[in-house]
Structures are given as C-alpha cells and as structure tokens.
Amino acid sequence: MNEQPKETKKETILSVKGLKVYFPIKKGIIFQRQVGSVKAVDGIDFSINKKETFGLVGESGCGKTTTGRAVLRLIDATEGTIMYKEKNLTTLSKKELRPLRKELQMIFQDPYSSLNPRQPVLDIISDPLIDHGIIRKKEKQERVEYLMGLVGLDPRFMNRYPNEFSGGQRQRIGIARSLAMSPKFIVCDEPIAALDVSIQAQIINLLQDLQEKLDLTYLFIAHDLSVIRHISDSIAVMYLGEIVELGRKEDLFENPMHSYTQILLSSVPIPNPAKERERKRIIYQGEVPSPVDKPPGCAFSTRCPLVTEKCRREEPKLRKITEDHWVACLKL
Amino acid sequence: MPVLLKVKNLKVHFETYEEYIYAVNGISYTLNSGETIGIVGESGCGKTVSIMSLLRLIDMPPGKIVSGTAIFEGKDLLSIPQKELQKIRGNKIGVIFQDPMTAFNQVMTIGDQLIEGLIEHKGMSKKKALEEAKRLLDIVGIANPRERLRDYPFQFSGGMRQRVMIAIGLICQPKIIIADEPTTALDVTIQAQIIDLIKQIREEFGTSIIWVTHDLGVVAGIADKVMVIYGGYIIEEAPVDMLYNNPKHPYTRGLLASLPKIEGNDRKRLDYISGQPPYLNKLPKGCPFEPRCSYRIEKCAQENPMLTIRNIEGNHRVACWLGLE
After folding, report:
1. In this structure, are residues A175 and A144 in contact, taking their beta carbons and an 8 Å threshold?
2. Interface test with A, best of B148, B228, B272 (most A CBs within 10 A)
3. Nearest to A230 among B244, B256, B266 (CB)
4. Least CB-CB distance to A271: which of B191, B192, B259?
5. What percentage of chain A's residues is helix, strand, coil (to nearest 5)?
6. Do B270 and A273 touch (CB under 8 A)?
7. Which terminus of chain B is more solvent-facing, meaning fewer CB atoms within 10 Å of its CB: N or C?
8. Does B262 touch chain A (CB under 8 A)?
9. Cα angle: B174, vertex B178, B179; to 5 degrees
10. Which domain holds residue B34?
11. Quick one: closest CA in B to A205, which residue?
C-alpha cells in the first residue's frame, strides 16, 4: 500500500495497516461475559501523504469517526498498526506517546460541547501549552493573540466565554486550540457539519489557508461528499467498518468503481434543477446491517445490485486497479 | 391551477421573560394545487416557525401569531376554532416532522398509532383499520408490514421511522403535506429513498407539498417554486429554474456560490458570505441582510426592502433595493 506514484515523490506521514476496533458487548449483572462485539472498524489499510488532505467518507455507523479517534489513540485499537514517523502508535506507552501528542491534534464536530463552558477562550487555547511546558503563564496572552489572529477571531474577545460566541466562531476557537501546539497532523472530525451553510464556506477556506500556511496534513472525516470532493487529495469510502474504495480525488469521482461509491454519488442532491431532473438515480432499498451482526462474505452483499453467491462467501480485499485507485470487490 | 392555500402577511413572535423574538415578519405566498414549494433558509431564519404556525403547532405562549391569515378551503387556519382545525390537521393537511422520534408516542406500537389515526379520521372499524395500516406500511416500502405493526418506534431505524411518519401522513390522503426538514437527519442514501418515495406519492395522489429545508440540493430536486427566507422575511421567490440560474438577491447568490460542488470545477477557494445570520431579537430599520451584503448602498440601512417585495419578471420576486442583473 506504500507504493509511491511515479511523478512526484510524496512523503508518507501516517500509515495504517490492518486496523481493527472492536467494542465488546457484555451481558450479565454480576458477572459480565462477552457475548459479541461491535466491529466498528474491521481491518483497514491506508496511508496519508504529508501536507495533503485525506478524506474519509461514509454514512453513519461506517466507522469513520472511530478510525479518526483510533489514529490519535483516543481509543485503543484492537488490532493493527498505526505508523507515524517510524513509530507504531499502537504499541507506545503513555509516556512515549506524550511528546507526540503535540503533533497530532483533533478538531471536533460539535462546537457547542467540545469547549469547556466555564473557561474563557484565553485558557481554552493556552492550557495545553502550559500543561506541556511550552510557554510560561506570562506568555499566554501573546501566544493566544497570535492564534486567534490565525483563525480570524478578534483577540480582544479572549476573555469571553464560549456561550458568547456563535457556532462558527466557536469552531474557530476549537481550531485555534488544535493549532496551539504547532501540530503536523490534524484529524478533522466533521468540522463543519454543525454549522450553517453560509458559515461552512468560511471554515473550509480557513482550513485550507492554514494547511498552506502551516504545512499541515489533514485526515478529514465527513459524510458530505461535496465538501470531501472540494477539500481532499485522496479519499477512502467506508462501509460497515471497511474501506470499499480508495483513490485520488479525480479518479474516485470521475470513475467510481465500487457499487456503494456509485450509489453514494448518485444519491447526493445537486443544487441544479435541470441536472436533478435528468439524473438517473440508483436507488437501492434496505438499510445498513448492524456492525454487531455483519453479513458473511462481502459486507455490502446484502444490498449490492451486482451480488453473486461468491460475494456472500468470500470477503473481498482492497485490490489495486490503477495507480492510486483501489477497490474491494470480487467482481472487478 | 387553483389556489389551495393563501398566506397573507404572517407575523409570528415569541415573548419570554428574557427576550422578544421576531421570528416571522410578514410572509405572504400562495400554494397552488399540485405544486411543491421549497422554503429555504438557514437555522433561525424563521422557516420552521412559519409553517408550523399554519397549523398552530407552536407553543402559544411563548409564541403568538401577531397578524396574518392563511386561507384554506375558504377558512382562515389561524383563527378558526380548535375543533375545526383538528379536523383539518392530519386529515386535509398532513405534517412530516424532522425528528420522527419526538413525533411518535414511544409507548404505543406503530400499529396502534396508525390504527388510532384511521379510526379517528376515517371512522374505520378496528379490523378494517388493521388491514389499511398494513397497506400503508407497504406503500411506504416497509418490509414485513404485518410483523412491524407490532413494533415500537425505537425498534425502527431513522429512515424507517420517517417512512412510517409518511404513512401516517398519508392516512387521509391530504391535499397538502407540510414537511419540515424531513430528510435532514438521514444518511444521504436513505434521504434519496425517502425523496423518491415522496415523489411517487406526489405523482400518485397529486398532493401539494411545502418542503422546508436548508439543503439547496434537495430543493433543486423536488420544488416547483422556491422561497428563500432570511431574518423572518421572504427575500426571494421564483420558479425553481429561475432561482438557481438567475438568483437576484445577494444572499441567494452568496449562498449558491458558497456551496462546494460535487461535480467537477474545483475552485480553490469558496466564495463566502462574511458575518453570520442575524439573531432576531430586534427588527432592523433597514434590510436584515445589509450588514453582510457586499452590494449595499446607503438606502439599504435606512429602509427595509422586505416590505416592498417586487416582482421582476414572470413570477420572480425579490426584496432588494438594487436591481441585480
């Protein structure tokens, strides 16, 4: 999976292999025994190039948020390796992980619950810097002024509390906080989903400007395909804990190969009435099976229009179709 | 096309101890038979309040309908006695809510809720109602309807609950369906299924629909006519093609331009509207959009163009002092 494209030599900053995150389901009041597991992430491989944006897209329950958290070790992986700077994050001790945490940050989806309502913005942004001994208390103000400026917030408001800001502004505070430690890699977990449409564009532009300015790499998790298309360089489509298709943005959108990707793309409403009228939608019935009770064989077999008997028995692996375009399907 | 519903100068405000909110500030429009109107706006713009108040489904107090009429079949929905309104609600005018969980009774089976509606509104016997409930679930694409009638709302997924909500809405084959963000909480593939279902129903029964959403993509696919709401006012109204091809109001233009596109043409930076939507605790002297508008002239801050919404051409109305080309 770590083959480099021939034209430009890109550097891999993060590489995930065989990642599994299973949550046990326990039963019993006094003695708990495990009766099953939620296979939130069920064996995925991908790598992310430095200074690029890797889009992770899928519908609810596909495992994308869990993947983002596992990559930062906010939850522990059940299996698999996460290589960052030649270190396997899954095997590091808490002590060894600590210095790396500065470089790996997260921007959360909900700007309302991810900020401590009892702290002024000044402290929200500067606390991690003080905790890690990067600055001293008296340098707080200056540093926060700089960071607020970076994200387009008026530094005069640094003594205000989160509830005095709008959703879009709160998201900017969250972004400033994630930038405080001068990270290299940021997991953006649906950073604009909770914002109004007219604010979303502002935040998308901000994230792109910051990436350019500060040489950042993003793992961008979203369910909105238009946003993913706009911001990503490479994209992975997830379904029931697995990656069904992975490729460079242009390849994936121009030539989606997996049935699920095709259905996903055909379902996205386009703000153009003429196009909407002439579209041939691929509507399929049914819903996503539960990750507790995954169907045998291909995870998508219960809904795939191309399904055969083989699909119900064998699990497809991601196979390379063209340079940088991978699909997990037995029929291709 | 006969006029089915005529809303005139609707104003809805909310009064609490702490504040007074000018949620809806004089909305007027007509819904024709067989037509689908898309009402578009961001959160807090007043779109939900404007349609929920048509059936008086907002809490009053703190809400109050300050003025306006909504004439349906010769009666003003906003002032007829509750008893008469109840005969119309769920019967001639159905509602699909955004969050089907809160709209359902959690301790009754889906079957019981459907049957209750059928007995109440159509005077059916229990036996007949059971058969009809099964048929309705079938129409909305729920597999194994007989078994599912015995399930409780929490046993259904989001998409299925929405289908059941549509089934309930269909009980009386309403003339109008009011849908408040019916697919916003659903995954995109499920959303496509639900929109498809509603289109089929519309085709078969000739229902008129008022569809409220913030999603400009969904509106493009379902509406005949679109109304854009901002600050509790209609700022632009046009047949769907006209609105998307030639938006006249700076807000509409800004909104359409700021959407990342799914199909090609990747611009590096998105156009955006600076600032944020207004908090409606006061009525602006001038245009509510003026603080964010890049085309503003002096008049915009002085006089509110929303009060003199002008017809430009065809059925394209805009509330703006500028004649944007």
Report:
1. no
2. B272
3. B266
4. B259
5. 35, 25, 40
6. no
7. C
8. yes
9. 125
10. 3-89+224-318
11. B269
| A21-62 tens-digit pLDDT | 999 888 888 888 888 889 999 999 999 999 999 999 999 889
The enclosing domain of B247 has a CATH number of 3.40.50.300
A145-175 residues labelled b (16+ CB within 10 A) or e (exposed):
eebbebbbbeeebbeeebeebbbbbbbbbbb
CB A106 within 8 A of CB A93: no
User: Is residue B99 domain-resident?
Assistant: no
Other CB atoms within 10 A of residue A122 CB: 19
Question: Does B36 reach chain A within 8 Å, measured CB to CB?
Answer: no
Instruction: From residue B94, give the alpha-carbon distance in Å to each of B2, B35, B202.
Output: 19, 15, 13
Say whether the ipTM exceeds 0.95: no
Residue B26 domain-assigned? yes
Residues of A in contact with B159 (CB under 8 A): 287
Q: Which residues of chain B make contact with A208, given a CB cutoff of 8 A?
A: 268-269
Contact A111, A184 (CB under 8 A): no
Task: Work out how many domains chain B is built from and give that number.
Answer: 1
Kindly report, residue by residue over B85-116, the tens digit of the pLDDT. 988 988 899 999 887 777 788 899 999 988 98
Residue B255 lies in a domain: yes
Q: Which two tokens stand for residue B279?
A: 């908090």
Looking at residue B50, its amino acid is S
Residues near A318 by beta carbon (within 8 Å), at least 6 away in sequence: A1, A45, A243, A246, A326, A327, A328
| Distance between first and last Cα of chain A | 18
Tell me which DSSP letter residue A98 carries: H
Of the candidates B42, B192, B261, which has its C-beta nearest A226's C-beta? B261
Taking CA–CA distances from A270, the nearest residue in chain B reads: B217
Q: pTM score, two decimals?
A: 0.88
Token duo for residue B99: 């969050």
Residues of A in contact with B242 (CB under 8 A): none
Residue B62 lies in a domain: yes
